Amino acid sequence: MSNVIGIIIGVLLMILGLILLVIWWPLFIRALMATVPILLILIGAGALAYFISEIKSKLEVSQEKTSAPEEKKSEQK
To answer: What is the pTM of this model?
Structure first.
């Protein structure tokens, strides 16, 4: 019985949400317009941080590769 009540409540909430979306469409568009630039800034900052860390890790790996043969030469002597 509680499953049926949950389904009825879910359908009623969906209908109410659709009605309010139609009524508040201009406000919804304004909220969406306000959210998109913020998301673009955050995604851009995340991508920038990711690729900077990738460049740093590649530089560290290349430095380790160039210093590894020199260390082996000094150990052999």
So the answer is: 0.57
